[in-house]
Structure formats: C-alpha cells, structure tokens
Write a structure and sequence with these properties.
The protein has 373 residues and is an alpha+beta fold. The protein contains ten helices and 13 strands.
C-alpha cells in the first residue's frame, strides 16, 4: 500500500460579505410586514406573530458575525430573501463548478505541478446543482484532467469523507493524485425567513490535493496518519429537496425543502459522539489527543466547537489550538474544516500533529489526523 499525503489546499471566497446587522435589518423588515399584514389574525389567536432577530442573539447562539455569499442583493431584499443566481445555459460552466475550479486553481498553484498529474476528481459537497452530469466531471474538463471524476454527498462531513476516499485511491494505486473540491453555495438552501436558522450559512469553495507520499516533494505537505468515518441516522438535520418534489401534490416551496434542524438535539447528540470518536481514533493511532497542536473542526457553531475542543484536549483550548473562522465565514458546511486548515497551518514544524474533523447531517462524522512532513 502506498502512503498518501495532503499536498496542497485552495480556497475561493466570494466577493460579497453580508454582516449580521444587514441580515437582521432584512429579516426584521420581513417580520414587521408579516405581523402588520396578519394583525387581525394574530389578535384573534389564529396566527402566531413572528419575533424579530438581533445581532446579539445571532452572535450568542452561533459565534457568527458575517458570511460571504455569491449574491447579496437577493438576501437584503425583504420581498425575496433568497440569492439571485440566474440559470446558465448548458454550454456555460455551472456556478458550483466555477467556484470549485477557482479553489482548485489555487491548490494547483500551491502544489506546483500540472493538472495532468491528477488522475481523479471528487466533488464532495452538501448540495449538488444538478443530478447529472456530475459537477466533478465538469471540474475535470475545465482543468484538463484525464482519468475519472464523481460527486459525493455526506452533508457537512463531505470533505473528510472525500479525503478518506482520495487517500484510499492513492493507497491502492488507483490514482497518483486526487483533487477533492468542496463548492458550497449554502445560501441557496437556507430559509432566510426562519429566525432560528436565517444566519447560519455562508458560501465558499475549498480544494484539497492528495498524492502519493513517494511523489511529493521532500518535507512538503502533510502525512495522513489515519482516517475514520462514522454515520448514524438522524432526522434532526434535514433537507428534503430533490427531483421527486415535483411529483408531490404540494409541489416545491415547502419549508422542509430547505435546511431544517433541531439545534438543541443536534448539540446534545453530536458533541459526545464526535468527541468520543476523536479520542478513540487517536488512541488507536497511538496519539495522545491532549498533545495535538491544533484542531481544525467543522465550523458549525461556536458552542459545539468549544465543547468538543475542551473534551478532546482535556482543558480550555487556546485560540491557536481550536481554530474558529465562524465569525468571518459562518457555517460553510463541508468546506468549514478545510478553510480552518488552509488558513491556520503555516506555523507547524515537521513532526507536529493536528486533526481535521467534520460532523453534520446524517449524522455523519469524519476524522483525519495529519502530521507535518
């Protein structure tokens, strides 16, 4: 079996940043209009009045202060409250593929090798723009890569599942190098009229190149010490949108066709599951979890990340030990842990270890322990 390494990463950040204050202004305008239009029914007890949101509520609940989005105009329009993303003709690159290619080009530049040395492309993300052809094949074509490509969806854990899959392809000899991309336009599946979740997500794309250790430049990249995946069915995070929706009498547009979750249940159930998984996996690899230099966790919620950090490290983590990018990027689903890793690893010395970890709907979770080469 051939050892695999993470050779390079890339990041595409959309140009539009949307602050909590801007989001709250739009949401509260919608709430005021709704309550005014339904004043009589609310007074009669037939309709429940909507409660306004606030910057303080959002930051306390999530740690989020802003998010990047591919379109801002539709999200600041109380009459729309959804991104304006026009459909493109089949001859034009799709939006998801376009941002994935942008992230991939940065990863390729950091790698310093031509795309022709990549044998496979995996597009691992929470929501695909279409059923087929795969976005991964579109990315493959745009970059001039031979070999094979496919999409995979394990919600917020898609990136760690993608890294595991890429490492297995390399280890088996199926590919010399694999490009794994995570394009996430989460604003497209978020219900911006739901007070409990209207602030959660942002848009972004990340890329990871995994290659054979014996082909990597000496001292460059990250040795993959071990990967572990776990799934456990839960209805507490769900998105029911799919091609069969058009066959149902109620049609498309119901709120369950967007992101919905039982946040408190997710917190109670996922935090212990992920914490135990990390500690157990570290033990199997002969690693002391309390000695990890850094955790690059899925950026779901500040309270979840801090609790997992405390449980894994056995103490209150320093900011440098438990990377948080939620304040700037919000929850970017599968891309969150990769953004954290991409932005905060330059200070590692050879031999120091860290953890890339994701968790989300499914439930699904993935751990990737890495050591600086």
């Amino acid at each position: 079996m051939t050892a695999a390494v993470i050779a390079a990463t890339g990041l595409y950040t959309p140009p539009n940043s949307l602050s909590n204050a801007e989001l709250v202004e739009t949401f509260n305008a919608y709430v005021a209009r709704f309550n005014t239009a339904n004043a009589e029914a609310i007074a009669a007890g037939e309709v429940q009045a909507l409660a306004p949101s606030s910057v303080e509520f959002i930051e306390k609940a999530s740690g989020i202060r802003a998010r990047y989005v591919v379109d801002k105009s539709g999200l600041t329009d109380p009459d729309r409250m959804a991104p304006n993303i026009p459909e493109r003709p089949n001859e034009e690159i799709s939006v998801l593929a376009e941002i994935a290619v942008a992230a991939a080009r940065e990863a390729l530049a950091r790698w310093g090798k031509p795309a022709s040395e990549i044998d496979a492309v995996i597009c691992a993300a929470s929501n695909m723009q279409r059923a087929y052809p795969a976005m991964a094949i579109e990315v493959q074509q745009a970059l001039g890569i031979d070999g094979f490509a496919f999409d995979m969806n394990v919600a917020c854990s898609s990136a760690t599942f993608g890294i595991k899959t890429a490492a297995d392809f390399v280890a088996s000899g199926s590919a010399r190098a694999v490009l794994m991309v995570n394009p996430e336009i989460c604003s497209g599946h978020l219900n911006f009229r739901d007070r409990d979740s209207h602030f959660i997500f942002g848009d972004v794309a990340t890329a990871v190149i995994v290659e054979r250790a014996d082909a990597a430049a000496p001292g460059v990249g990250w040795e993959i010490l071990g990967t572990r995946l776990k799934t456990q069915f839960s209805n507490n995070i769900r998105n029911n949108f799919g091609f069969l929706n058009r066959c149902a009498p109620e049609g498309i547009g119901a709120t369950d066709k967007l992101f919905v979750q039982e946040g408190r249940k997710v917190f109670r159930e996922v935090v212990p599951m992920v914490s135990e998984m990390i500690v157990d996996h570290a033990g199997e690899l002969g690693l002391e979890p309390t000695a990890l230099k850094r955790l690059w966790l899925h950026q779901a919620n500040i309270n979840m990340n801090e609790m997992i950090g405390r449980r894994v490290l056995g103490r209150e983590p320093a900011p440098s030990e438990n990377v948080i990018i939620l304040d700037e990027y919000a929850n970017t689903s599968s891309a969150g842990s990769i953004i954290a890793f991409h932005k905060a690893n330059d200070d590692f010395a050879p031999g120091e270890t860290g953890l890339i970890c994701s968790f989300g709907a499914g439930y699904s979770a993935g751990t990737v322990f890495v050591r600086k080469r």
